[in-house]
Design a protein that fits this description.
The complex is a heterodimer of chains A (about 400) and B (about 140). By secondary structure, chain A is an alpha+beta fold. Chain A is about 45% helix and about 15% strand. In chain A, the strands form 3 sheets. Chain A has a 4-stranded mixed sheet with strand order 2-1-8-9. Chain A has a 3-stranded antiparallel sheet with strand order 5-6-7. A two-stranded antiparallel sheet of chain A has the order 3-4. In chain A, helix 5 packs antiparallel against helix 6 and helix 5 (about 90-120) packs antiparallel against helix 12 (about 250-275). In chain B, strands 2-1-3-4-5 form a 5-stranded parallel sheet. The chains are: A alpha+beta (about 400), B alpha/beta (about 140).
Chain lengths: ~400, ~140
């Protein structure tokens, strides 16, 4: 195990590098078992949060994950507002919803590109990332930043969405809808992509429920679990949308769930702009939060995020706890990577099966250690080596 | 200028290492490589092994777990080697300054040639950092 940790992995895909170590047990080309080891990226954010005020923590929360941009600051603000117990202006709820959905569009497109790259379909990767820039420009225009939005504050939002900017959002959404539909067709029709994704990374419905999978990973296994629908927050109670599920339980299902969700998000943004009431965008709330407990939850692009805050009548939280969706989804990885009965996992399937949960943290190493079950011999491959195998080259 | 220096200036090979970043800088680095910005057309190439790289691009606060690894990667790179710290956390631990598991900055472990500030820096800023680095390459070793 120690040799596995010592191999630092190259930069193939920054978005996917995880603080995680996977030990795969292989018999020839077949993977017969997998073990996870995590915790390489521990920074101690929750503890640091206890030394900072609630407002300062919003900016720290935003930096838990750069891809989920708004999600963590939104959830923390929600938890804090839960303790204070004051209603927000509706316009703020709508702007938050638009922010959350723009974030989902950018994140799902990012993932689609990365997934295409993992199976060696770099053309799609480049196309998707080109069109993703349109969303990034939009996010910059709406929130002021490309990656960390700083849009949410306790008691509302910091930036209004004036009419002309909203119209621009709608224009870009039309363009994007067309592109995303094209990619959906590409993913369904492209034989090489289907050959790499169909029946790979299987997570049966009962396993998804038993292992508490969340987000697109659960929905691709036919579990219709979506916090936006089950526990409406922000403006989701007034906006109709469909919870997308597929029941083939494989990587193809996860690709299609994310593409369909992107299309749903585009509709949610349109609806939110149409229904957005006028009025103030924030209320002033006290800096000192009364003693109590609050929970904030939302559907991040990767699944359910929960923030728990306990306050002690000061301007700093007494305890702040975050549960990110990737942690819940990690448990499904060993199941996806274990051959069982008719279900065969090949070494070449490891990258895409792992990427299919859209792991979202930063990382130091992703070396994979192989153990031959026949003679107990073990060796370590870097992700780049596995990718070479996965793309059909030599080892 | 020798052939090797000429080649290095025309096409610096880069290795990217994430030392515990929030992925913000990382997606901006990928954005710099994809069609909108596409630094590969200037010969800047991302490689997988530190042994092939001229430039080490580091993102994120340095957590205690990666301390040994970042030093080892740096040692594995052939001379002359250059280091680029991308993002505020890499330069000074930024938003994570109160975290117990984070080093104050990359330069407390290895020498840094170029700092790109921003949280996260935009792809344009990263490209600007690369241009500064190329100027430094013209001037010779680190």
């Amino acid at each position: 195990m120690s040799t596995a940790i010592d191999i630092p992995i190259g930069p193939q895909h920054p978005a996917l590098k995880e603080p995680i170590n996977i030990t795969c047990y292989v018999d020839g080309e077949q993977v017969v078992g997998a073990k996870l080891r995590m915790g390489y990226n521990h920074r101690g954010i929750e503890k640091a949060g206890e030394y900072q005020s609630y407002i300062q923590n919003l900016y720290l929360a935003e930096r838990i994950c750069g891809i989920c941009g708004i999600v963590h600051s939104f959830s923390l603000a929600q938890a804090t507002e839960d303790i204070i117990g004051k209603e927000l202006p509706r316009r703020a709820d709508y702007i938050r919803t638009i922010g959350l959905e723009l974030n989902r569009v950018h994140s799902h497109l990012l993932w689609l590109g990365v997934a295409a790259h993992e199976v060696g379909f770099d053309t799609l990767f480049m196309y998707v990332w080109r069109d993703r820039e349109a969303v990034m420009d939009l996010i910059e225009e709406v929130t002021g930043n490309r990656v960390t939005y700083a849009l949410v504050t306790i008691g509302g939002v910091r930036r209004d969405l004036p009419q002309e900017r909203a119209e621009k959002v709608l224009r870009v959404m039309d363009l994007l809808e067309e592109k995303v539909k094209k990619y959906k067709k590409m993913c369904i029709d492209e034989k090489t992509l289907r050959m790499r994704c169909d029946g790979v990374g299987l997570l049966r419905k009962e396993d998804a429920i038993a292992l508490c999978a969340v987000g697109p990973t659960a929905r691709a296994s036919g579990v219709p679990y979506d916090v936006r629908a089950d526990d409406p927050h922000a403006a989701y109670d007034e906006i109709p949308f469909k919870v997308v599920t597929y029941d083939t339980c494989d990587v193809t299902a996860r690709v299609l769930v994310r593409i369909d969700e992107t299309l749903e998000s585009i509709n949610i943004i349109r609806e939110a702009i149409k229904k957005m009431p006028s009025g103030p965008i924030r209320v002033r709330l006290p800096r000192v939060v009364p003693a109590g407990e609050g929970v904030g939850r939302t559907e991040a692009p990767r699944g359910e995020v929960i923030h728990y805050v306990r306050s002690n009548n000061s301007d700093k939280p007494f305890r702040w706890k975050v549960r990110a969706p990737t942690l819940a989804n990690f448990l499904s990885i060993p199941v996806m990577l274990t051959s069982k009965g008719d279900y065969v996992v090949n070494i070449a399937d490891i990258p895409i099966a792992f990427a299919s949960i859209d792991p979202c943290m930063s990382c130091t190493d992703r070396a994979i250690k192989f153990v031959d079950v026949n003679d107990g011999k073990s060796w370590v491959w870097s992700l780049s080596q596995i990718k070479r195998v996965s793309h059909g080259g030599g080892r | 200028m020798g052939l090797v220096d000429w080649a290095r200036i025309r096409s610096p090979w880069v290795i990217h290492f994430n030392t515990g970043a929030c992925n913000g800088c990382d997606i901006e680095i990928v954005a710099a490589l994809t069609p909108r910005y596409d630094v590969e057309r200037f010969g800047i190439k991302l490689v997988g092994s530190p042994r092939h790289a001229d430039v080490l691009v580091v993102t994120g606060p340095i957590t205690k777990q990666v301390e040994k690894r970042i030093i080892r990667i740096y040692e594995q790179m052939p001379e002359p080697k250059f280091v680029m710290a991308v993002g505020n956390c890499c330069a000074s631990s930024g938003a994570f300054r109160n975290c117990y598991n984070v080093y104050p900055g990359l330069d407390s472990l290895i020498p840094v040639d170029v700092y790109v500030m921003g949280c996260p820096p935009k792809p344009e800023a990263i490209i600007n950092g690369v241009v500064k680095l190329i100027e430094k390459l013209r001037g010779g070793g680190s």
